[in-house]
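Please, why this fold?
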Amino acid sequence: MSSSNGEMAGKNGFESFNLDPRLQQALVQAGFSEPTLIQENAIPLALSEKKDIVARARTGSGKTAAYLIPIIESLLQAAGSGNAGTGVISTLILVPSKELADQVVKMTTMLTTYCTKLIQVVNISQATSEQVQTSLLSENPAIVVATPARALAHIKRKSLDTKSLAYFVIDEADLILSYGHEDDLNELAELLPKSMQTWLMSATLSDEIDAIKGKFCRNVAVLKLQDTVSSEQLLQYYVKCNELDKFLLAYVIFKLKLVKGKTIVFVNDIDRCYRLKLFFEQFGIKSCVLNSELPVSSRLHIVDEFNKNVYNLLIATDESNEKIEDDEDDKDDATANSNGNDQEKQTDSQPTENTQETQETQKKNNNNNKSKDYGVSRGVDFQNVACVLNFDLPTSTKSYTHRIGRTARASKTGMALSFVVSKESWGKHKPSMLASAKRDEKVLNRIIKTQGKQDNELKPYSFDMKQVESFRYRMEDAFRAVTKVAIREARVKEIRQELLASDKLKRHFEENPEDLANLRHDKELHPARVQGHLKRVPDYLLPKTGQKPAAFTGHVPFNKTNNKHRVHKSKKSSKKRDPLKSFKRR
C-alpha cells in the first residue's frame, strides 16, 4: 500500500501526461488549461502505476475529471492496441444523486467529443422505464453511470454484464453512505470482479470509507489533499438576528441589489422554500425553487438554466441527512423540551384518533414524494455563484462546508453570508420560527473552530438597522400575506406545473429544443393576498446615499387643455361653484 501527501506532479499542463491527441484536443476545447491539485496527483498514479485511488478533496476541486481522464485514456489505448475495452461495458460509475449523474454524463460527453464512436456513455439513474434502460445497456456502452440501487437491480436482472468491467468508480462515497446505500455496496462487492481498477472519491475519509476501501481496492494510493480555499478567495460573514429579521434582511439585500451576481439561498425545510419564494414575489423579486419533491427532469433543467445565467436567485432545500452534532447538554434540553411540548399538545389540542391517522398518512406521503437520490449542497456543479446565503443555518459543520463550496470555485472569488438566531430570541415569533434555529449559536461556534483550523475566518457583519427599519412595515405586510394555506397551495401548484412540463411535454421538447427556453421555473405562484404596491420601493425608504434628487417638471394637468383657458375657466368656475356663496334654500 502506498500513500501520497499531495505533492505537486509538475506544472507542464495536461501535456505532461502524454494523453491521446483526441482526449488532449477535447481538453483544450473544454478550456482545461492547467490540472488541479487532485488531477496532478491522481492521473499519473492511475495511468502509469495502475493504482487504485482513494482521494479526499473538497467539493469543486476537479474530482470528476481526475478519474474520467485516466479511464478514457485507458479505453483509447486498449482500442488502439486491439485489446478488449470497446464494444463491451468496461466502466461502472456510481453516484449518490441523479443530479450528479447528469453532471458526470455531461463531463464524459465533453471529454469524448472526438471519440464518440469508440466510447459511449449511458445514464441509467434517470426515471425511465426498465425496458428502455435494458435496451440501452444491450448496446454495450463503454461507460455506465448509475446510482447504487439502480446498478444492483440491473446486475441482478442480468441486463448489466459485469464480466468485462475493468474500471469502477464510487463518487462522493461518504454521501452515498449517508443516503443509506451501504447494503447495496456490500452486495455489489460480492457481484463485481475483483480485478477492477477502482477510484474512491470523497470529501471526507472516515471508518466507513475504510471499510469500503477494503472491499473494492487492492493496490491502493491514498491522496489526502489539503486543497482549501483561502480567506481572500472566500469571504465568510454571519449576522446575528431574530427569526423575523431574516426576512427583513433578505428583502433589503435582494430588493436593493446589495449582492451582485448569482446567489443560492439555502433553507432547511421545503415549506420554508415556498414561504420565501412567495415572500419575494410580492416585492417583484424573481426566484426559482429547487427541492426533492420536484421531478428529476425539472431539477436538472433548473440547474442547467441557473448555470446559463437564466436565473440569478435560487432557493434550495438542503436535505443531505447530515447527523446533528449534539452534546450531552443539548440532548438533555431536547428531551426536556420534547416532554414539555408533548404535554402542551395534549392539554391544548387533544387530537382525536382520526386526526392522528391523517397526520401519519401525510408524513408518509411527504416521505414518498421526496426523492432519496437528491442532493444540492454537494455533487451538483453550480457555476459562477457569487454568494451563498444560509437563510437557515445548517445543523452541522460538514453541511456548512459543503454549502459554501458552491461558491469560490476554480480560483474565483465568492462570499458566504449566514443568518444566526440567538437562543434568547428563538421562539419569540412563532410564524417564522424554525426548530433547528434553537441551536444556531452552538453550531456557529463549531463552524468558527473548524474554519479557523483552515485559516478561514468568519467575521461578524452588522447592518445599519436604522436604515433597514424603514422597510419593516412593508416586510411585515408581505409576511402576513404568506399564510400556511398559501404555502400549501403554492407547493401543489408548483409540483403540478413541473409534472406537466417534465412528463407530458418531454417528447415535444426533444423534437423542439428551442421551445424549452420558454419553460420558466421562476414564475409567480402568488400568495393569498396579492399586493402590487410592494414591488415599488418609495424614495423616502432609501438611504440618503442612494437617493437621487428628482428634477422639477412643473405642474402636469390631467386634461390636455390650453393653460390660458384652463386658468381662466378654473377661476371662473371657482366663483360660481363656491358652495358657501351659491348655497340656496330650496
Notes: The first helix runs from residue 21 to 30. The domain at 234-325+372-535 is CATH 3.40.50.300 (Rossmann fold). Confidence is low (pLDDT under 50) at residues 1-11, 326-369, 549-561, 563-574. The first strand starts at residue 2 and ends at 4.
